[in-house]
Write a structure and sequence with these properties.
Strand order of the largest sheet: 1-2
Oligomer: single chain
CATH architecture: Alpha/alpha barrel
Shape: globular
Number of strands: 6
Number of domains: 1
Strand content: under 5%
Largest sheet: 2 strands, antiparallel
Distance between the termini: 16 Å
């Protein structure tokens, strides 16, 4: 089947233009130094800290038995300009999702002994959190979650946590054959409904980023070479079907809504990034020709979810700075550069536009002190781990010397 790798085409109208005269200091060495500093910041805290969705872990969360009460409490803690966690008895969390994401990030630099040791330590810590019992092989969040469309307690696995954790363990070789087998059975048995991959074992809602995470993970497992042939075939078939389901959900402008329900029809930056990255991974591993929808989606992402180098949270331009969205934008700009959809200078400019808000990286600079909810930016899962992942991915695609961001570095549309 044709490769899914995009090639460079000529610039087209509608893609974000470069800011004239904007210069960035980042080369490979600069990005490497940022990764070192961010890793050290998180290690000093043992990868524990606040989380946007930890509002139900305190004493009040245990008595919030109604959906409205749960969602109100969770959102109040998440959005408050003052950190309510000490007042509400909410303690710092260490999540397997954070350590799994960080393990994958460190593994990219594993040619250096210190990063290899870091990757292995984080991978082993993540592997130790793999579930046993009813949901054996999967991973969970360490907190109850209530969203507008679902409630899932900490005892129940979910596909997003499972994917980030599994990738971290597979990237570091910290799962033995039995654990991989358990993961494969758990993925098909609890997070696949016969048509697509579901966010949780009890959800029937199609959420495109989660479905494609499941497809990419199933495709990866099918190619490990350690699973029985029939099981590997089932994984590959489920992955192919899931990809087709989400391809059918792509809109005419190249975007995907968050989910397949009227109240889930928004388009945001980091979920779009997840969709593109996992679609590319699944297509490549399965030998599926997803190049055209992938390039349509990338054009939409680069055109409608950036304001110059500054990421937008929503495609309709509603403003909100968010550490996960910003980190995913850096990660996806690096991906776009790797596959000929943007120049490396654009990825550096995105990093320059967002980096000063992250703890440990913006000290002494005015932009490094965001107004309100500082705790959101100090979250290992939502902030530090995604940015570390982005930094190590960007380091891999940068040239050796400094690269200014000039007007010619604007993202380019892929050749058809």
């Amino acid at each position: 089947m044709p490769s899914t790798t995009a090639t460079t085409g000529s610039p087209r109208r509608g893609l974000p233009a470069a800011r004239a005269g904007l210069r960035t200091p980042y080369d490979g060495a600069e990005v490497y130094a940022l990764a070192e500093r961010l890793h050290a910041w998180a290690e000093d805290r043992d990868w524990a800290g606040p989380d946007p969705y930890d509002g139900l872990t305190g004493p009040l969360g245990r008595v919030a038995v109604h959906r409205v009460l749960r969602q109100s409490l969770l959102q109040a803690v998440k959005r408050s300009p003052l950190d309510l966690r000490p007042l509400l008895g909410i303690r710092p969390l260490r999540t397997a999702t954070a350590t799994g994401t960080a393990a994958s990030a460190c593994a990219r630099l594993a040619a250096r002994p210190e990063w290899r040791e870091r990757a292995l330590r984080l991978g082993r810590r993540t592997a130790a959190e793999q579930l046993s019992g009813r949901y054996a092989g999967l991973w969970r969040y360490e907190f109850d979650v209530q969203t507008r469309w679902a409630h899932y307690p900490a005892s129940v696995p979910n596909l997003v946590a499972t994917t980030f954790c599994a990738d971290g363990c597979l990237d570091t070789g910290t799962l033995d054959d039995g654990a991989v087998l358990s993961l494969a059975h758990g993925l098909l048995g609890h997070l696949h409904n016969g048509e697509f991959f579901t966010y949780t074992p009890t959800s029937g809602v199609l959420v495109h980023n989660a479905n494609l995470m499941g497809a990419a993970l199933a495709a990866r497992l099918s190619r490990t070479g350690t699973l029985p042939g029939a099981l590997a075939d089932r994984l590959a078939a489920a992955a192919c079907d899931a990809v087709e389901v989400s391809l059918a959900g792509q809109r005419a402008d190249g975007s995907w809504p968050y989910g397949d329900r009227p109240d889930l029809d928004w388009v945001d930056g980091f979920h779009t990034g997840y969709v593109l990255l996992r679609l590319h991974q699944a297509g490549t591993r399965l030998g599926m020709d997803v190049r055209t929808p992938l390039e349509r989606g990338a054009r939409h992402y680069l055109r409608d979810l950036f304001d110059g180098p500054l990421p937008r949270y929503f495609a309709d331009g509603r403003p909100r700075r968010d550490p996960n969205n910003d980190a995913t934008a850096v990660r996806m700009a690096a991906w776009a550069a790797e596959h000929g959809l943007a120049a490396p200078g654009f990825a550096c400019a995105v990093l320059a536009a967002v980096v000063d808000r992250y703890p440990g990286l913006g000290a002494g600079r005015r932009a490094g002190h965001p107004r309100g909810n500082r705790a959101l930016w100090e979250s290992p899962r939502w902030s530090a781990a995604p940015l570390l992942d982005a930094l190590t991915a960007l380091h891999r695609v940068l040239p050796a010397g400094p690269r200014p961001y000039a007007p010619g570095d604007q993202p380019t549309a892929a050749a058809s």
